[in-house]
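Entry type: protein chain
Record version: 2
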Amino acid sequence: MDVILLYLLTLPTAIVVGWLLSWWGSRRVRRIVLGAGAVVCVLCVVVIFQSTGPPSPPRADGCSSALACTDLRPGLVALGGVIGLVCCFVLLLLTIGVEAGLARARRRRRAVSG
């Protein structure tokens, strides 16, 4: 179970931590972090699907069923990429909402002080 969580949560955790740390930078840094995270997620899924070979038939390696013969690690990495992509999308929506709220607050402050 620990290995499955490692494969599934490494990329989304790195994206969230990078996004949180990017709030001490400029808006451009936040966009770069989310964009790079999305690109890495897509590449993760594409590379995994390109590298998978044909499945081995049952009993070829002494396995009793096709599922027992299947290595699930590439699928878990691809699933981690999909979860990371969803994470990027949610953080993008959150960023847009927060940026809009900050812009609105700045305009109100300028209107009151000006």
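Comment: Helices lie at 2-22, 27-51, 66-69, 73-113.
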